[in-house]
Structure formats: C-alpha cells, structure tokens
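User: My advisor, Dr. K., asked me to get a structural model of this assembly before our group meeting. I'm new to this, so sorry if the format is off. These are the inputs:
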Amino acid sequence: MPKQPKGVVGDPMHRVDGRLKVTGAARYAAEHPVAGVKHGVLVTSTVARGRIKQLDTAAAEKAPGVLAVVTYRNSPKVPGYSDAKASNNPRVEGQEIKIFYDDQIHFYNQPVALAIAETLEQARYAASLVRVAYEQQPHQTDLAANLSKGTEPKKEKDYSRGQAYAYRTAPTHLEQEYGTPIQVHNPLEMHAAIALWEGNKLTVYNKTQAPKLAQQDLMRMFQLPEENVLVHSPFVGGAFGGSSRIWPQETAAILGAKHVGHPVKLMLRREQEFNLVGYRPRSMQKMGLGASADGALVGVTHEAFGNSSQYEQFAERIVHPTKSAYRTPNMNTVYKVVPLDVSTPCWTRGPGESSGSFALESAMDELAYALKMDPVALRLRNYAETDPENDKPWASKHLRECYERGAASFGWSKRNPAPRSTRQGDWLVGQGMSSGIYKSERQEATAKARLMADGTLLIQSATADTGPGTGTIMTQIAADASGVAPEKIRFELGDSALPPAPIQAGSHTATSVGSVVHDVCVALREQLQNLARNQIGSAFSQVPPTDLVALNGELQLAQDSSKRLSYVDILKQQNLPMLEVTRQSKGGPELKEHSGKSFCANFVEVHVHALTGEVRVRRVVSVVDAGRVLNHTTARSQVLGAVVWGIGQALMEQAVIDHRYGNFINHDLAEYHVPVNADMPEIDVQFIDKPDPIISPTGAKGLGEIGLVGFAAAVANAVYHATGTRVRELPITPDKLV
Amino acid sequence: MADEKPGTPPENAGHDGNRRDFLKKSTLLTAVALTPGPVVHAAEAAWDEKVAAAFEKVPLKLEVNGVKHKLSVEPRTTLLDLLREQLHLTGTKKGCDYGQCGACTVHVDGERVNSCLRLAVMEDGKKVTTIEGLANGDKLHPMQEAFVKHDGFQCGYCTPGQIMSAVACIREGHAGSEGEIKEYMSGNICRCGAYSNIVAAIQDVKNGGQKV
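Assistant: The format is fine. Below is the predicted structure of the whole assembly, which you can bring to the meeting.
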C-alpha cells in the first residue's frame, strides 16, 4: 500500500447535509411530495384487553371529504398474517401485532380504525366520529405484580461462571434491588408513513433505521418479491431504536392505500408515540456483590426482570455489562421476561445495557462505601485485562486511561468521600462516577462506488442517518481511501434499493458501513492505479503501486509530485464513461477471536436543594474509548446527546401506566419530561482516540450508545454523595429525597 | 415588492354564493367522474345541506416569506398544517401539535410562535416567516451558518424551530448570557441533545454583531 498523506478522517468536518437541515429542505417521512395523497388518522383502543363489541363507522363515512374508514371488517388482507412463520419478526420471538385483522384487543391504544379523507382536518374529524364499544377483559400491566409469570427468554440465556451466588460467602457483601421505569424514545419527528401502491408494487416513505430490514419486514408481511417493495427514508427525525421495525402506522397506511386506491399519508399523534412504536421496558433488578477486604470481587450475581407484550417476547442485553465489566471468578446472571397486556417494547438507546448498568454501577458505588474504598480504586482493583465472559483478549481497551483522564479533569482527588460533606448555601453538593461498557461489533455490509467522468464520486449503501452524521463520516472515509476530495463525494443512504447495509443500531454503523466504504474505495483506487500503470506510454507504467499517492482526485509519484495523472484523465484515456466497484465485507476471523467493546468513564457533580430535593446536574466529564475518532465534531455531539439522555434517564423520564386502565397517563411532552436547554450542565467530552486494530480498518469502534451506559448511576452516586440518600429506583425525583 | 400568488385552492369560495354553488365549484366534485367509489360516495354524502356547512371556508390573506397569498381555509386548520399541507412549506416541523416541543416555531409579524397552536384564520393580514424564508437567496442567515459551524443539530428535525427561536431570542434581547439563552431556548426540545452546541451558535451570532 502506498503511504497516503494525512487525510480528512478525524477532522471536525461540518455535516454534509447541514445546509439541507438548516434551510428546511431536508425531507422527512411525511414531507415527500406524492401526487394524489390522502390523509389517514388512526382511531385506537381505549381498553387494554378484550374484544370489539360494536363498531360504528357510519357517521365517519358520511363526513365531508371522507374516502373510507378501514377496520378489521373491510380491511384488505395482509397475506403474512395467516402464516405463523410470516407473522414472526425474526428479531423477536412470537407473533407480531396484526393490524385491522380481527376484533381482539391486546393493548391500550391498539389501532382499530383508520379514517381516510382528502384533508388532514377532514380525516381527524372523521376519526373522532368512529364509535367503538368493547367487551373488556381483565388485564395485567404491572410488572411487579406479575414476576411469577417471567420466563427465560429464548434469545438471552442465563449465564454462570465459577460458583453461583458466591457473593454471599465474601467478607463484605451487599444485596440490593434496583429499578428503571418505562422510558419512551420520543423522537421529535413523530412516526409517519406514506404508502403508495402501483399495481403490485409497494412504495413506503417512512422513517427507518434500516431500509433493508424494513423492506424485508414488508416482503414477509405482504408476500411480495424484493423488487416490488421500495422503502425510502433519506432523513430520519430521531430514532434511538424506535424506528427499528415496521410499526402499525406503516401497515395501516399500506392497507388504507390499497383500500382507497390512492396513496395514504399517516402521522402518529404524540400520545400514540408512547406505545405504538416501542419503548424501553421497565426493569426490576437485584444485584449481589461480594468482595474481600482489599476490594477484589469474590462473586457477582445479577438478576433482572423486564416486561414484554403477550404476543411477542422482547429480550434485551440487560445483564451483559455485568458479565464483562469486572474480573471476578464467580458470576451468575438470571434474566426473565414477563408478558403483560401492553404493546411490545423495543430497543432504546443503550438498549438493556443502560438499564443493567444502572444497577451494576450503583452497586459498585455501594460496595466502595462498604469497603471504605474510593470508587475509582475499586474499579481499578477489579480491572479486566481480558473479557471475563469468555477469556478472549479485548480488541482494544483503554478504560484505565478513561478513569485517569476523567479523574484528573474533574478534580476527583479533591473529593471528600463522606456523604453530605459539602454544602453551598441551600444546595448539597455531591460527586459521583461510573463506568460503561458496550459491545463494538461489525456486521456484513455492501457499498458501491462510482467514479464519474467529471471526477466526482458517488458512494451508495442502504444505511441510515438518524442523526449521528453517517453521510459525513462516510464521505471522510471515502475521501481518504479513494483520494477524491470530500467536496467531490456524495454518499447516498436511506433507500432499500441501495446495496444492503445493516440497521443503524447497536453502535455498529461506523464499523460495518465505514469498513466497506473504506474497502470499496481502496479497491477503486487500486483499479485506477492499475489502469494508469497499464496504459501504454504511461509515465506510471514502471512505477510500483507503493510509489503512487492518491490525492485530490489524482495519482502522484511519491518521490516527485510534479508527475501526476488525474482520475478524470485516466477514465478519458481508457474511454470509460465511469468506473464502478461494489464490495461486500464483514471482516475476518480476528473479529471472533477478540472481544470488541467500547468503554467510558463518567464523572458527575450534582447540586441537590436541601429543602425541595431538586437535583441539578452541574458538571460532567465523560471520557470515551471508542477507537479512532472519525470526526471530532460529530463524535462529540453524539456523546453530548448521550449525556442529555443520561440526565433524562436519571432525573425525569418515566412513562407511568395507570394499571386500572392499562394506559400511559403522562403521554405528552408536557407531562413526560425530557431535558431541555436549561437543564444542561457544563459538559466536557474527551476521547482516547486510539485506533482499534481489530474491528475496522478505520480503527473506529462503536460510539452511539457508550456515553449513556452507566451514566444514570454516576448521577445517582453523586446524589448519594450529596445527600446520604441512595435512590435505587429511577428517576431520581424530589419526592425520593425529601 | 412581494409577488401576488394564489394559494391552494386557487379560488376564493367566499361567503356570498350559496353552498350548492360553492360545492359545484369545489375541486372535489369536478373530479367525481374520474374518482373511485369511496370518493364518489363521500361526494354524494356531501350534498347533504348540513354537511355542506362543514365545507365552508374562510378567506385568508397571508404573507409568507414575502409572498402574498389569498387563501381560503377551513376555520379549524392550524397555521402549521396550512404551511405544511397546503403551502408545501415542510421546513416547519410537527413534533407534538400541543405547543410543547417548539418544532413548529415560526415568526408571525416578527414574533416567535408555535404555529401548531394558531388557527390559520387568526393570522389574517399578517406576515409569516418560516425557515424557508430566513436565508437571503443562496446566502444563509448568520444563525443558519452558526448552526452548521457549531453542529447545533443531529437528526435535524427540531432544527428549523430552534433556528427560528434562536433568531427571535437575540431580537428580543434574551441572549445576554449563557444562562439567559438556555432559559429562553427551553421551549424548543432537541431529543438528540444538541443543546450546548445550540447555545454556542447563538452566542457566536450575538457576539459577532451581525444583524439578525
């Protein structure tokens, strides 16, 4: 390989789609111009379990502008619904919810009718005229009251090494229960879909983290071949896991469009966002930690319960951090999923890991106090040099440096460990820390690179950009690997017709798609080098490839940069209208031989009002080991976002079910609190920025989730330090402190 | 001078003609012959005199981004839905419909408002500026530039509302300090968590002294 000059990877390049986003030109799901589109508004159930007894759509159908009211009585059939295999979304166990299929109600807010009209106002009015009566059956929506119904999920088996429950034998041990509430993604863009049938061909404009998976879901449900289903989702107004599968709004729009013979557009209402498109399940957890007097962990036990629906079993990685975070000879984890009369949860930023880490990292803090040890020292005492879960070497791990840099930047050494030891006026001051661990993997992905005659480069891959800046880092990777300047590169994503890419989730887009973009651009450059070297009479004909540098759309002789040949000229000389290369890649066996993880250390200062119990996060230092940083601006933004989510999770976010009715009672953004600008502390984000040698050729590891994992525990630990009160049930609201 | 441009629908139905005349003129019915069953059914139902009342529209004059529109809107149509669905200005975003998120922030006669909480008919004769009207041709408004420079967004959905709010925040004189900016920008939720960068962008524009 030739020695390439320093490229643009790592630079704080502005987003390639920034201009579209600040001018309002970026089009989100409901904003695509589709000729003749009609508007759909959903009517949803007002009981959690039962059947539809009466359904009166007459008034709605007579209302002005109404084309139809679709219900289970008149809906077109979903062919896949009649087949158990086709009704299984392979990423969860069970049978997916069937829209307008029968009279059965499985959860509160289940769609029962779709009013379709010429205008949004007419559709909304028509929806209000639909009358539904239910035969109600008793429902169960309370996890705590149904723990006995929990079962070991098929996708997450219990784990043990050494002796189970060995923590009880340790000289210092503790056993505590922790809980996390239902948290709702609440992206700012409410889920929407426009469905369009052209004969047997289906086009769906939606918001998805996975154009290919969405396409596969629709192929499975509607029994259509790949070429008949197109999913288009170029911009996604926030997802956080909530756009990871086909949800009722897409299905309803598709069925509606089929029924009326026109395209149908449907946007969920904010209250429908709470349970029609997934949420983070409630968790109830028990941690057992035991250590010898010097802090060495003797045993760890983590038991967890989470809720799912009656029709699907959603399992998450709630006990995963516990298995790998610290060295201990004895470890066992137990996880059970409880079916309730609610809709199926789904992956929510830092899925599982962030709930599980709240318990683990809170318990580690409690153990540190029990041992009279510094919490950082306790973590270093049990530092894992290899992955304790499977004894594999880490692909890379710089957590020790995260602790050191974080502690130094934060001023941790000046902390008086005694709870309630610092006060500023009416405010109690506390400092806490935690650490985070999250998988860093690479999946198979495909990309196509097409060099045009004018020297511009088009890269295509069916990935998504839900906000991290996918198109931007891919442009940077492509620039360095191809030698084409970034401003001449266009990266296309968000469409199922593009070369296949995995879902944008689980922090693996930079590693999976980034790797194949790197590979395809290297292949393109090599082809250009070969063309240049094989050209008769070429100045480069005798030059070994290692002496050729690719830069600014040209090949240059390493020793003499005045000898150069542009890509445009190479194509011209070869009479090529363009040069196209496609690559698929998933990495080699080294991936399986190593444990890939990203790490972080969080340091947090809180002020707690001594009288009201109000908690303000004042200062955050977050140090992240996510391999090489591909773009310092967008990477920092991702961690800022994780901190904001962490503050929300720690202090305010909680969707409350009224178990009498089985519905969410705080189903809007006034009652379900998310952090706003005034809640922001001073946030210092730092990266270790050392390339990972295993996971991807760019040296990147996963970044999207890691900043959130363990963060809520750092807040809870700081609140304990400030007040002497240990809050083990999130969120930490004032009532728990006064 | 602003252009005079008809909005959607093109003709002013007015209050003067009787309802049947209005209905006959309406685009819905002229399309009956070409439309499938459900539409015809709806149209036939619409002949009902009582239902026809619901069709009644109100004339509305509105200047949007310097363009004068003569519109005819249903009284129940919000300013937000008018912008997005009838004028096809989708830069203004719908995030909740309850005035809780700020994504739909526009300027009406220079003041920031949540357009989801305004009925369009309330704005008769007023000037509306949306994100599409902020730049000067190809030249971005300083606040748009600053949002790009400071990475004041991720997914971009709350961004038009944040920018419209940010411009108003400075014009109102509420950008005097970091704390003041945070307080006066707290009506605009950003779920991606770009808040710190948004504050930096606003401070940059404020300190740069450019006219906003």
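One thing worth pointing out at the meeting: The two ends of chain B are 21 Å apart (CA to CA).

User: Perfect, thanks a lot.
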